[in-house]
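2024-03-11 09:14:02 INFO worker-7 job=invfold-0412 stage=load source=structure_tokens
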């Protein structure tokens, strides 16, 4: 009886060690993450802001929305930048052809908020 109890305790101890050192599979790993529809335009907004403000660091990024306008679509973003001691926002508006996704115009507007 003593040997069975000892073997059971050892087996339970090993199981507990394996359970503690083996990380659980995250729930997010089993669910495919979708790429948002605005991702392509967000990358373009970041690229254009980096070109326009080459010495600034992008601190934050926000997709403000999308709306259709006739045959085109407009995506709006706000990026928060730091250049030296100055922090400021830049609104980026990208208008593109809804059908061909060809860029029609890109506008920038600085803000202190």
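2024-03-11 09:14:09 INFO worker-7 stage=emit residues=113
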């Amino acid at each position: 009886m003593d040997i069975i109890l000892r073997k059971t305790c050892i087996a339970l101890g090993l199981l507990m060690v394996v359970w503690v050192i083996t990380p659980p599979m995250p729930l997010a790993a089993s669910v495919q993450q979708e790429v948002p529809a605005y991702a392509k335009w967000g990358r373009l907004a970041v690229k254009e802001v980096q070109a326009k403000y080459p010495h600034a660091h992008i601190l934050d990024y926000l997709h403000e929305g999308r709306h259709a306008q006739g045959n085109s679509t407009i995506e709006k973003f706000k990026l928060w930048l730091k250049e030296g001691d100055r922090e400021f926002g830049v609104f980026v508006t990208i208008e593109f052809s809804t059908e061909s996704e060809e860029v029609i115009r890109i506008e920038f507007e600085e803000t202190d908020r």
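2024-03-11 09:14:09 INFO worker-7 stage=report msg="The chain has two helices and four strands."
2024-03-11 09:14:10 INFO worker-7 job finished
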